[in-house]
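Notes from hallway chat w/ T.B., transcribed later so I don't forget. T.B. wanted the structure written out for a chain they're using in a teaching module, and asked if we could keep both sequence and structure tokens in one place. Agreed to drop them here.
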Amino acid sequence: MKLKQIFLFSILIVFLFRGTRSYAQSEPLDDGVLKILAIGNSFSEDAIEQNLYDLAKAGKKKIIIGNLYIGGAPLSLHVANAKADKPAYRYRKINLEGKMSERNNERLSQALKDEEWDYISFQQASPLSGDYGSYAKDLPLLYDYVTKNVKYPSTKYILHQTWAYQNGSSHEGFLKYNRNQDTMYAAIVNTSKEVFNWGNFDVLVPSGTAIQNARSSFLGDHFTRDGYHLDLNYGRFVAACAWYEALFRENILNNTFLPLKVTYVEGQIARKAAHRAVASPFKVTVLKDFQLMK
């Protein structure tokens, strides 16, 4: 076995055994408010900062949303910040009334103790989202740090599956996937499936599959605003719908919220794409009801 393989295997073993969290210290917090914190970047910004609160409100759910933001941050950077306790984050938080606040120069250690988080989300930077080795190297270290520093011992953990770039995207990270969306999506799906299976995660949020499902509709490959970040309206709505159903285990098709700049049909596509993604997170479901007439 090569040295690199031995190293990765040893890291995974540490992750698996350290991840057996003790629930004896505290029962799950039951205050009627779901509190989530994303350790992320602009892809978590796209997914949870715009529509998730409104979907929760429409579904008569109470939610607090936190996002530790560094643009383009990979897991390795979060690990470095954790080790140095570096004040490197823009910490955005949406409170119970739906108002967002932002604190600059936040430390990961501070945000972890800011609330009794029900869920904390991990994700990789988009160019590495289909790179299994990058997860194996850094995710166990970050996970270990987080589980040792959370305020609430029964916090649960989310793996956020991000999306493939739009065909024709100029992002340099697209080269890793031969500038082919199908290749990138397949790598993301295979990686997220493996990581979720060996990781100590409670929820997979399949934003990547939700976007890919939506691309099978007559809207086509137009869900980003620059080739990789989501369209500010219906693109972001797809991801938020996936988060809502994955978190609350409630059929998003029954949720009545619709963003002002999203049409009724776009909203239907977003909800159906997300609903099918949560049901089948590792494969595309073609939205046959939203195909162009031939």
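Follow-up for T.B.: The first helix runs from residue 3 to 18. Might be a good example for the class.
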